[in-house]
Each structure stands twice: as structure tokens, then as C-alpha cells.
Write a structure and sequence with these properties.
The chain has 404 residues and is α/β, with parallel strands linked by helices. It has 15 helices and twelve strands.
Length: 404
């Protein structure tokens, strides 16, 4: 009897998450390789002209061109879809390619998009700068205010777009409330789940329509490659997203897909351990700094909501010091173990100053409105020994004048 790989949904749908993360989507060639094969090819050959014509017409399954299908990329797409609980997934060249494609594939001139105020700087640029260029109206709201979502709805509202937890303010969106509201008005919800991934939070279970990712972050987990993904129904992925992707080309390279496949094998282990470390470090720092922004701490105003829709709160949190940029930079400069870096999701601990890095492209007024103040620092807590991290943070805080 031939053993199953990971492509038969009637079998893989019965697997539990840990098994899906290792074997989901795996397709083996005639060589029977154990690790996923890396197919570095742009095109494919065919036995006869009728075969290629049938494939391009959609009458026959098979590869045509790596801008449309690649075996390695297809394995990653199937695995992410299985982990997310989605019908389908399309991989993208980067996280921002995923966000851009998820929006532009379904919005046209005259449509309206409601977006969360607290968001990654480049996501805000999409909403504030790019969409209006195409006469797509946008409204930015406080995503933590449930009433604000309904107030912002117009007759032409087509999309709700938000991150939860948000970058870098760690605002939490009430997934069930917002997704139910959207459905009642025929609005599509697009959720950026990069801070959590399916290992910690699954927005589709709360009614979300589309989940988008920077797979560069926790999915890869080791800062090696750029990658993105968009998950949704087969209808949305194949009829709405695919035509946009086919003709604009934000495709993921097979090598990058292979690297992310390897990252997914340890995603749950890393995400939960890093969440544990982040919570321990957050507790250690609380009371030492003027303001902590960690949804896993009871002091966070949305702590109960976060715990009701997340398995754990992730490796990332922010904190604010009173001394503005000068004191924040002093903390960064005093770090010995934690690296200064604007990446997140890495197995290494990283810290950055959002106002001068990830959100530097925004106006000062926009940063102030979303709470990205000059004294804010964002940390990605890695897999190092928690006692070493505490010691490094302790010394950095002391160097910046924050005594214990």
C-alpha cells in the first residue's frame, strides 16, 4: 500500500496541527526524497502540443510556468492553508506583497476601505498613500473601539483591513465582533496575522475572510528570507487573487519557499517558547518602565480579549520610556546580547525604535495619533536563556537611567 504524502485533503484534514506543520502539502517525486524537493525552474516541458494547450486552457492539471505554479511553492501553500484552516493559499514574494495583493485584487476606484489606525508603517502607507491614488477611499479608525467600525461603514465599503496584535502598539481587535459586523454588511475582512501566525491565533475561526502574512517573520523564524502568503476560500484565492497575481507577478521564489517550509516544522515550538520568554521578560520589566504594552499582562487594557482569542500572546511587545528618543536610543546602545534590528519573529532577540525605523516614513502627527511616540521601543524576544535576557535588559535600563 502506497503511503500518503501531504496532498490528500481527505487525509491531511484529519491530522492535528503538529503533524500538518511537518507533513502537510509534502509531494514526493519518483525519487522518494524525505525532505521536500527544491524545484529551481522557471518553466516546464511537455510531451506534446495538445498537453500544453490543455493545461493553459485549464482543462488539464499540471505546471505551466513558475509565475503560476511551482512544486516547491505549491507545497508551502498547501501547508500554510492546512495550518490556517483555509481552503486555499497563495504564497507571495514578501509580507508587503501579500498585503498589497490582498487589497488591490478586490478594490477598485470608488470603493471604500476601513483600516485600523495602529498598523505597520508600510501597511499605513498602503492605506494613506497608495489606495487613494487609485480613487479608493479610505478611513482610518481606532481598531480597539468596536463602535468605530460600524460608524465608519459607507454604502461603498468593501474591505475591513487590520492587524491584531498591531505593530508596534499591540492593540487587539475583537475578531468575532468585527468579522460578524463585516459579514452582516457584505464586507470582506482582511487580517494581518503576522504577529501570531496560526500557531497562536486563527482568525478564520472567528469569521475572518482573508488572512495575510509576512512569512518572513515567525514562519521562517531565523531571519533568512523574505516571503508572504494570503489565505482564504478557494473562490477568493482562485477567482479574485490569482488573476491579480498572475498578471502582476509578486511571486515567491522556490528557494525561499523551501526555507519557510523548514521553518514551519518548528513554528509551534518556537512561537510558544518565545511567547513564554516574552511574558517572563515583560513581568520582569513591568514597574521598571513607565508604560508596558504586552497583551499577556493583566495591565494591558485588552488582556482578557487577547487571552480569549489567542493561544499565547507572541514574542513581541513594546514599552515606553519618558525620556523620548534620547533615552530610547541610550537603551538600544547599551544592549550587549539583544541586537538592534527592525525584524521580528526571529529566534534571536531584537529591539528597535519604531519612530526612527519601521514608522519613520509616517508624519509625526500620524505617529502620535497611533501612539508611536519617541520613547517607544519594540522588542522581539527570542529563544535565548531568559535569565541572560533579563540581565542584558537590566543593564541597558540602568545605563539609560532606569534603576531597578
Amino acid at each position: 500500500m502506497k503511503k500518503t504524502t501531504g496532498t490528500d485533503r481527505s487525509i491531511t484534514s484529519k491530522w492535528r496541527p503538529a503533524t500538518r506543520a511537518i507533513r502537510g502539502g509534502t509531494w514526493r517525486s519518483e525519487h522518494g526524497e524525505t525532505s521536500e524537493a527544491l524545484f529551481l525552474t522557471s518553466g516546464y516541458t511537455y510531451d506534446d502540443a495538445a498537453t500544453v494547450a490543455a493545461r493553459f486552457a485549464g482543462d488539464e492539471q499540471g505546471m505551466t510556468y513558475s509565475r503560476l505554479q511551482n512544486p516547491t511553492v505549491a507545497m508551502l501553500e498547501e501547508r500554510i492553508a492546512l495550518l490556517e484552516g483555509a481552503e486555499a493559499c497563495r504564497a507571495q514574494a514578501s509580507g508587503m506583497a501579500a498585503m498589497t495583493a490582498a487589497l488591490l485584487c478586490q478594490l477598485s476606484a470608488g470603493d471604500h476601505c476601513v483600516s485600523a489606525r495602529a498598523a505597520f508603517g508600510s501597511c499605513r502607507w498602503l492605506v494613506d498613500e497608495l489606495l487613494p491614488r487609485f480613487r479608493i477611499e479610505t478611513t482610518v479608525i481606532d481598531s480597539a473601539d468596536n463602535d468605530a467600525w460600524e460608524t465608519a461603514i459607507r454604502p461603498n465599503t468593501k474591505v475591513f483591513f487590520f492587524e491584531t496584535p498591531a505593530n508596534p502598539t499591540l492593540d487587539i481587535v475583537d475578531l468575532k465582533h468585527v468579522c460578524d459586523l463585516a459579514k452582516s454588511h457584505g464586507i470582506t475582512t482582511v487580517v494581518d496575522n503576522a504577529f501570531a501566525t496560526a500557531a497562536l491565533q486563527r482568525p478564520l475561526e472567528f469569521g475572518a475572510d482573508v488572512v495575510a502574512y509576512s512569512a518572513t517573520k515567525l514562519m521562517d523564524g531565523q531571519g533568512r528570507v523574505l516571503a508572504g502568503a494570503v489565505c482564504g476560500t478557494e473562490k477568493f484565492i482562485n477567482e479574485t487573487l490569482l488573476p491579480f497575481q498572475r498578471n502582476t507577478g509578486p511571486n515567491l521564489a522556490p528557494f525561499n519557499a523551501w526555507v519557510v517550509l523548514k521553518g514551519l516544522e518548528t513554528l509551534s515550538l518556537r512561537a510558544h517558547k518565545q511567547s513564554e520568554n516574552a511574558l517572563a521578560l515583560g513581568k520582569f520589566m513591568e514597574g521598571r518602565v513607565p508604560q508596558m504594552l504586552h497583551p499577556g499582562l493583566p495591565s494591558h487594557p485588552q488582556h482578557n480579549l487577547a487571552m480569549s482569542q489567542m493561544d499565547a500572546c507572541g514574542p513581541i511587545f513594546s514599552f515606553v520610556v519618558d525620556g523620548g528618543r534620547k533615552q530610547a536610543h541610550a537603551i538600544l546602545d547599551a544592549l550587549q546580547l539583544v541586537d538592534i534590528s527592525n525584524n521580528i519573529g526571529d529566534a534571536r532577540s531584537l529591539m528597535c525604535h519604531p519612530a526612527s525605523t519601521t514608522h519613520a516614513g509616517m508624519t509625526e502627527q500620524a505617529r502620535q495619533e497611533m501612539g508611536v511616540v519617541e520613547g517607544m521601543l519594540r522588542i522581539n524576544v527570542g529563544l535565548e536563556d531568559i535569565e541572560d535576557l533579563k540581565e542584558d535588559i537590566d543593564e541597558a535600563l540602568k545605563a539609560a537611567g532606569l534603576e531597578s
